[in-house]
Amino acid sequence: MGLQCCFSVTTLHTLKLSPISILRQSTKIPTLQPSLPPPQPSTPSPRQSPFRPSSHRTHNNFVKAPQWKAAIDFKWIRENKEAVAANVKNRNSNANIDLVVELYDKLLDVRKEVEGLRAERNVIANRMKGKLESSERQKLVEEGKNLKERLVTLEEDLLKLTDELQQEAQWCAKYDTSRCSSRRRRLFYHKKNCW
């Protein structure tokens, strides 16, 4: 018994079929349930969790970086602190608006200090481009090293503050735009529809 089939354009092959019984009954009873391991309980992601965890800090007292950064208008929260607090209360959220405002103020201070140190570093770098005596050059190199060390620590602090501020601010409820000015409402909806 043979079956002819074409595997390529030029050749014709014959497949030999062995006599098998297709209609033979199987001794196994088919089951509809697959043999999968039982499901393991998983921890809910931060976005799925309906309750705020007691602390955002790990065992080393470091703040975890948020998985995503929301576009939050911290300046508006600071200017309209009472309205945001009332909105949080109406939505039964336990966000700490005072902490968000405090962290935002600290962030602005650290950001100003970092920008000042960068400006100083640039001034020193520009002074080193000219002709200098070796003692003056050595003094400028030492100042540059000190500025670099301070800048590195401040940038780390800035990053931690940014992450902590994002963590805290993401617990704030969505703004109630019905109480906003018409200009702000238009900007809010324009931004919302552009995403």
From TrEMBL:
SUPFAM superfamilies, per the entry = tRNA-binding arm
Q: Kindly give the Pfam families that the UniProt entry links to this protein.
A: Seryl_tRNA_N
Q: Does the keyword Coiled coil apply?
A: yes
Keyword rRNA processing recorded: no
UniProt keyword terms in alphabetical order: Coiled coil
The segments labelled Disordered in the record are 30-60
Compositional bias annotation for Pro residues: 35-44
Which InterPro entries does the record match to this protein? Ser-tRNA-ligase_type_1, Ser-tRNA-synth_1_N, SerRS_1_N_sf, tRNA-bd_arm
Q: Which residues form a coiled coil?
A: 100-164
Query: Where do the Serine-tRNA synthetase type1 N-terminal domain residues begin and end?
Result: 72-168
PANTHER family xref list: SERYL-TRNA SYNTHETASE
Query: Which named protein is this?
Result: Seryl-tRNA synthetase
Q: What lineage is on file? A: Eukaryota, Viridiplantae, Streptophyta, Embryophyta, Tracheophyta
